[in-house]
Structure formats: structure tokens, C-alpha cells
Specification:
Elements lengths: L2 H9 L5 H27 L2 H28 L5 H25 L5 H25 L12 H24 L4 H20 L8 H10 L23 H10 L8 H12 L3 H16 L3 E7 L5 E9 L4 E3 L2 E4 L4 H9 L3 E3 L6 H10 L7 E7 L5 E8 L9 H13 L1 H78 L11 H63 L8 H28 L1 H6 L4 E3 L1 H18 L3 E5 L7 E3 L1 H18 L5 E11 L2 E9 L33 H12 L3 E7 L3 E9 L5 H10 L1
Parallel strand pairs: 9-11
Antiparallel strand pairs: 1-2, 1-7, 2-3, 2-4, 5-6, 6-7, 8-10, 11-12, 12-14, 13-14
Helix pairs in contact: 1-8, 2-3, 3-4, 4-5, 4-6, 4-7, 6-7, 7-8, 10-11, 15-16, 15-17, 16-17, 19-20, 20-21
Length: 773
């Protein structure tokens, strides 16, 4: 190394030569920063904004080093104490951010995180290096320390890693970045080969003074839209350019035809194609697409598109938001997006994959916003054939068009939603109809099986009766033969022996008759038990589908799956009412079939009638509310406890209130009255339930409490359609030593009364005790 070269390297490491080094770096970064700012303002490219941010960080680092160097030159601080480690650390810091600027022009979460962590690691290493340098300051120069070797090797590794990253990703302008890092690599390699005395490396500084001006190419990597940057030119030249300039918007007959087709389109599925065709014709865009975000914001749906060059409609598709992050984010936030064709852009690659294009070209996306700033979708323009760059003027023009599309999009979405809801409602109604048909078939099948079972059991019982009659006839013949003295032996027995034998025959006849009766009773009991079990089992099986039908009808009436028309609502309400009636009849059938066993399990106890009344009214409140029936209560201030089974009493009152609610017209009145009565010295509670259902004919009063299962029997006027509930109430009342009856006022209503005993005390005793108090 000759003296001249050594002098140059030395001047770059001592004041004021080192200040010149930092000034060159600062001006190079500042100039690139200004270019990036101008490009960002003119184009609003996200790459320009990202370059501006990275260059700002790089400029801040160089300004800090310039300030510290100046303070050391003025001996305000000791430069040898902190500047040598800072110089190495900030050079590595610059290598990291230069790689980031060139290799990742678009947002990349992994790269951003790695760059931030590496920068933090450099700052930590700087702190450790400062601590290790302090004891060595008086002994040797920094270039001779192990720390300097570590910094230089680390810088070599980072420059190599940066060049490899650029070569693999192949971003726009990658060779400028590779040349910049390669110059830095030569500087660090030269420092290790030609080690010089001192605290700074002149070779490294000279290499970066030559490399940093290359940063001026960073903002120029992407195409600048025509007309964005202008300079004064002669008027004649402007006129010539005006003649040569390609028109940016179209107003020919095809545009008006596309607009008329859009206005006339009523099919929601074709609205997107009509919109994209009209916009593509107007904006002279190679490709135009309508895009929407899904409800969960995980995907972007391409509703339809138009290819202006081929003059052909394009089919839609879906894109995961991870493959087009910037486009998805701008659409979600309701902001426009302009992007140049970039080889490293995930959005450009994602669109290229779904469209089958090598390069989709430059991108312009504008959201379709309502007056409330709600995003309905977006319009996406691409220029893969003409390579047209989009300007701020294009963006504003497209935004105005998008604002005019709001009512068309809303109309299309509403029609599409109504169509979907209508299809869902029809599907639900069809499903309910199928369920009702299945239930009808199941009931008919169970009826046939019950009839067949009855026939078999009847035949068995008749065979048993015939056998019994045959035995009886045989015994009667034997008695007749004995009485007529036929076939007696020559030595007839004595009269006493004959009487004994006759008595034995009569006893055998009586035993045979008794066995016959027991067999008939057992046969009937077995038949009833089997019938009850079969009916209870079938009724239990009916409960689940009936509950499902009621649930689906309530879901439809709640309109949670779509709006119902007036006629559809009427049909669904009829289905619900019929299903609830069938459900109630099924419950009564189960109770009737199991009533005999339940009567054996009744547990009489002292019961508070107030609780019984409250629970019964709660169970029947829905039925009364639906018809807006008012309930009038007439209860004594104090109610004595009654003797009976709690659940049975509850069922009695529920059945009476349900019957009253069934026959009382809308806006009618039901009266519930409780009073006491004394009969034969015993105290009783009388519960009266009076309805306003028009009363019961006198000829039908005897049939009120019977079980009417036969479909041929006419319904009783003034009694609910399901009279089984009253039969159950009568059975439960009599099982608890009570009485139930009905009194009717024709044309007004009926009053059902239940009489039940007090809990083991006489009314007279209770009254006397009350009087003494």
C-alpha cells in the first residue's frame, strides 16, 4: 500500500476528514429520502412509503454519528471512548436496513420482525463492546482489538446474507442493492487484509462513501405514472405530446351501451359483470373485477370481471387474504390502493396465480363506500397488456364512479339476500311438511298395529271361552246322566254316596267357572297392559319429532333465517298450532295409558293450594296470552292446606285451565274461585273454573268426562277439542276422595268444580280456633 493511498485512508479517520465521510453519507441518504417522499406524494405507492420510512431510519443513524463525531472534534466528549465501537455498530445497522429496503419493498411481517430484532441485537452488542473497550483504551488502538475482528466478520456475513437474499427474491432494482452491498463487502475484506493502526477503518469508510450514493436509485425502481412528474417545456412540445398522448377515458358508443346494460340489469348474478364491463369501457382498463370481503373477513370473493382486450366476461373466484394482504387490508379499512407491478409483491403474485397471468401489471383498487362509510365491496383494475400506470387522477375518477354504484350494489345485495331467504324458508317448510307426513304415517301404522293386536288377543280369549264352555257342557252332561240314573251298575250306590258325588261334580263346575273368569280377567289385564305399553312407547317416540317441528317453526317465525311473507307466516303458524295440539294430545295419551300405575303411586300429603294455583297458572299462561284472555282470581285471604297428591292436584287444575283457555274466545275472561264447604261435619275446598265459551248443551253434559277416542264421535260444544284432559282430571280427583262436576249456562259459559278434603281437620274446629284468636 503506497503513501498516497495510506494518506487518503488516514484523512478519512481523523478530524475533520471523518466529518466529510459522515456528510457524504448523510447527503446521499437525504437525497434518496427526498426522492422517496416526492414519489410517495405523487403516486401514493405503498413501496414509496416504505422506502421513505427505511431511509428515514438510516438517515437518523448517520446524523447521530455525525453529531457525535463533531462533539469529539470539539473535545466536548472523548472520541476514543465511545466512537470506535459506535462506528462499527452503525455500519452493521446500515447493512441490515439497506438489505431490508432493497429486498422487501412490500410489507412482510417476518422480514420486518427479523430486521427489528437484528437492530436490537446490534444495540445490545454495542453496549457490550463499549464495556469491553474501556479497559483497553490506554493499551492499544481499536483496530487491533478482538472486538474489531468480531465486528468486521459480522459485517462480512451480513453483506453476504443481504446479497443472497436479494438474489433469491429478485426484487425490482435488485442489482443496485447487490452492488451497494458488494462494495461494503470489499471494504470489510480489505480492512481484514490490510490492517492499519488507528481506531477507524479508512478502507471501510471509502467503500461506503462510494456505495451510499447508489441509494438514489431506490425510489426509482417502480414505474412512475405519466403526468405525475412534470417540468416546464415549450408550448409547441406540449402540444405535440398532447397529440401523441393516449386517451385515458373512453366515451364512445360501447361505453354508453355498457352503461345502459348495467341500468337494465336485474339479475343479481349478472350485475357484477355489467358493472365491470361498464367501468372497463370507461377507464380503458385491460381487466376490471368486482371484489367483496366474506362475512368472516378471511377471504376475498371476486364477483365477476371483464377483459377489455378480449371483450369477454370473466368468471369469479375466491382468494385467501394471506395471498393478497395489502389488497385485503385496504378493502377492509375502506381505503384505495395503487401498486406498481412488483416482482416481490404477494398481492401481485396472488392475483397472477388465480388469473393465470405471468404479470398482472399495475394495480388500482377503490372501495365502494356508503354514506355511513360502510364498505360494500371494491373495484379492482389491472393492466397486464398495456402496462398502464394508474395516477391519482385515475383513482379520483374511479372513486366517483364507485360512489354512483352504491344504490346498484345495495339493490343487488338485497335481491340476492331475499332470494336466499326465500329458498331457505321454502326448504324449511318442505322439511316440516315431510315431518308431518311421516308422523301421520307413523300414527296410522300404530293404529293398524293396535287393531291387529286387539284381533289376536280377542281370538285367544274366544278360544279360551270356548274351551271353558266345552268343559262346562261336559260336566252338565255327566250330571244329567247321574240324575237320570242312566248307565248305573246293577248294584247302585247308596243315596248318600250319590249326593256326595253330585256335590263333588258341582264343586268341580264351580272351580271351572272360577278359573274361566280368572283367565278372562288375566287375559283382559294382559291385553290392557300390552296396549298401554305400546301406546306409551309410540307416544314417547312421537315427542322428539314433534319438538323438532315446533322448534323449526319458532325459528322460522322469529325470522332468524330469513323474512317470511304474510302467506308464508300464516302457513307456518298453522303448522305450529297443529303440531302443538298433536303434542298436547300425545302427552295426554301417555298420561292416560300410565294412569292406572300412577294411581297406585299416589302419595297423599298436606299441600299448600297457593303453590298449586301459581304453578298451574304459570303452565297455562302462554295459551292465555296468545288469545289475550284475562284471568280473574277470587281467593280467600288464607287458604287451608288440603289432603292429596301434589302432582295429581297440579294436573287436575292444569287440565281445567287448559280446557277453559281452549273454549274461551279471544279477549274473553276466565274466573278461578276458591271457597270452603262443610259436608257431614267435614271441611272441603271447592275450586271453580268458569269460562266464557258459550256453555255446554244439556244432552252433552253426561259425555263431558268420558274419553272420546273414536273419530266418529262429534266434538262437544263448550269443551276443548281434547276431552281426554277432563277425563284425566276426573280420575285423579276421585282417586283422592274428591268429586268433580260441571254446571253450564247455555250461551254464557261453563263452570267446572272440584271438591277436595282438608288435610285431616274439620272445618268447624278450625273456625272455632280462629274465633278464639
Amino acid at each position: 500500500m503506497n503513501a498516497f493511498t495510506t494518506l487518503i485512508f488516514t484523512q478519512l479517520t481523523v478530524p475533520p476528514g471523518d466529518l466529510i465521510y459522515y456528510i457524504v453519507l448523510v447527503f446521499a441518504v437525504a437525497s434518496a429520502l427526498q426522492s422517496a417522499l416526492n414519489l410517495w406524494r405523487a403516486t401514493e405507492f405503498p413501496q414509496a412509503k416504505r422506502a421513505f420510512m427505511g431511509l428515514g431510519i438510516l438517515l437518523s443513524a448517520q446524523i447521530i454519528m455525525f453529531l457525535f463525531s463533531g462533539l469529539g472534534w470539539q473535545h466536548i466528549i472523548d472520541p476514543k471512548t465511545i466512537l470506535p465501537p459506535m462506528d462499527r455498530a452503525f455500519i452493521m445497522f446500515g447493512i441490515i436496513w439497506i438489505t431490508w429496503l432493497y429486498a422487501f419493498p412490500e410489507p412482510n411481517r417476518v422480514a420486518d420482525t427479523a430486521t427489528s430484532l437484528l437492530s436490537l441485537f446490534i444495540m445490545v452488542a454495542l453496549g457490550l463492546s463499549l464495556l469491553s473497550w474501556q479497559p483497553q483504551i490506554a493499551l492499544l488502538s481499536y483496530n487491533q482489538t478482538v472486538d474489531d475482528w468480531v465486528w468486521q466478520i459480522g459485517s462480512l456475513f451480513l453483506t453476504l446474507a443481504g446479497m443472497a437474499t436479494l438474489f433469491i427474491r429478485k426484487p425490482n432494482g435488485m442489482w443496485y442493492g447487490i452492488i451497494l452491498l458488494f462494495l461494503g463487502f470489499l471494504g470489510h475484506a480489505g480492512h481484514l487484509l490490510f490492517r492499519m493502526e488507528g481506531n477507524y477503518s479508512g478502507i471501510v469508510r471509502l467503500a461506503y462513501m462510494a456505495a451510499y450514493p447508489i441509494l438514489l436509485t431506490l425510489p426509482q425502481r417502480f414505474a412512475i405514472p405519466a403526468g405525475t412528474v412534470s417540468s416546464p417545456r415549450p408550448a409547441t412540445e406540449k402540444q405535440d405530446d398532447g397529440l401523441r398522448e393516449h386517451k385515458r377515458y373512453n366515451t364512445d358508443i360501447k361505453t354508453f351501451q355498457a352503461l345502459l346494460a348495467l341500468a337494465a340489469e336485474s339479475n343479481p348474478t349478472k350485475v357484477s359483470q355489467a358493472i365491470t364491463r361498464a367501468i372497463s369501457q370507461t377507464m380503458l382498463s385491460d381487466l376490471c373485477f368486482m371484489i367483496y370481503m366474506t362475512d368472516n373477513n378471511n377471504q376475498i370473493v371476486i364477483g365477476g370481471g371483464y377483459d377489455l382486450i378480449r371483450e369477454d366476461n370473466l368468471e369469479g373466484g375466491t382468494l385467501n387474504k394471506e395471498s393478497i394482504p395489502m389488497l385485503a387490508n385496504s378493502l377492509k379499512r375502506g381505503r384505495p390502493l395503487r401498486m406498481p407491478a412488483s416482482s416481490t409483491s404477494a398481492d401481485i403474485k396472488g392475483l397472477a396465480d388465480i388469473l393465470g397471468l405471468t404479470n398482472p401489471g399495475h394495480l388500482l383498487s377503490v372501495p365502494i363506500l356508503t354514506a355511513e362509510k360502510e364498505t360494500l365491496g371494491g373495484v379492482l383494475l389491472l393492466s397486464p397488456y398495456s402496462d398502464r400506470t394508474w395516477t391519482a387522477e385515475d383513482q379520483d375518477f374511479l372513486s366517483n364512479i364507485a360512489a354512483l354504484l352504491v344504490p346498484i350494489i345495495k339493490r343487488s345485495q338485497k335481491e340476492n339476500k331475499l332470494g336466499t331467504q326465500n329458498d331457505q324458508a321454502r326448504a324449511k317448510i318442505k322439511e316440516l311438511e315431510n315431518s308431518v307426513q311421516e308422523l301421520t304415517k307413523l300414527l296410522e301404522q300404530s293404529r293398524v298395529e293396535m287393531i291387529g293386536s286387539d284381533s289376536k288377543e280377542m281370538a285367544s280369549m274366544l278360544a279360551s271361552q270356548e274351551e271353558s264352555q266345552r268343559i262346562i257342557k261336559q260336566l252338565q252332561l255327566e250330571i244329567g246322566e247321574l240324575q237320570s240314573a242312566k248307565d248305573f251298575p246293577s248294584s247302585p250306590p247308596s243315596t248318600l254316596e250319590m249326593e256326595k258325588e253330585l256335590a263333588q261334580l258341582r264343586n268341580q263346575l264351580a272351580e271351572a267357572n272360577l278359573k274361566t273368569q280368572e283367565k278372562e280377567i288375566d287375559t283382559v289385564a294382559i291385553k290392557n297392559l300390552e296396549q298401554s305399553g305400546a301406546i306409551a312407547s309410540l307416544s314417547q317416540d312421537l315427542r322428539q319429532p314433534l319438538s323438532s317441528i315446533v322448534g323449526y317453526t319458532e325459528l322460522l317465525l322469529g325470522e332468524s333465517v330469513g323474512n317470511l311473507g304474510a302467506l308464508q307466516r300464516k302457513f307456518v303458524e298453522r303448522i305450529k298450532a297443529s303440531t302443538e295440539r298433536l303434542q298436547s294430545m300425545t302427552d295426554d295419551m301417555i298420561q292416560i295409558t300410565t294412569l292406572t300405575s300412577e294411581l297406585d303411586g299416589l302419595k297423599p300429603e298436606s299441600v299448600d293450594l297457593n303453590l298449586i294455583i301459581d304453578n298451574a297458572m304459570s303452565q297455562t299462561s302462554k295459551q292465555l296470552r296468545e288469545k289475550n284472555i284475562s284471568m280473574h282470581l277470587d281467593l280467600p285471604k288464607t287458604l287451608s292446606t288440603i289432603q292429596g297428591d301434589r302432582e295429581a292436584l297440579q294436573q287436575i287444575l292444569i287440565h281445567l285451565l287448559q280446557n277453559a283457555g281452549a273454549v274461551t274466545p279471544p279477549e274473553g275472561t276466565i274466573k278461578l274461585k276458591v271457597k270452603t264447604r262443610t259436608e257431614n261435619g267435614l271441611g272441603f275446598i271447592v275450586i271453580n273454573v268458569a269460562d266464557s265459551g258459550g256453555g255446554i248443551a244439556s244432552k252433552d253434559l253426561k259425555r263431558v268426562f268420558t274419553r272420546l277416542y273414536d273419530a266418529e264421535n262429534d266434538n262437544i260444544q263448550g269443551v276443548g277439542e281434547n276431552s281426554a284432559g277432563l277425563s284425566i282430571a276426573k280420575t285423579l280427583t276421585e282417586a283422592q276422595h274428591g268429586r268433580i262436576w260441571v254446571e253450564s249456562d247455555q250461551g254464557v259459559g261453563s263452570t267446572f268444580s272440584v271438591l277436595l278434603p282438608f288435610a285431616g281437620q274439620k272445618v268447624s274446629e278450625k273456625k272455632s280456633k280462629k274465633g278464639k284468636k
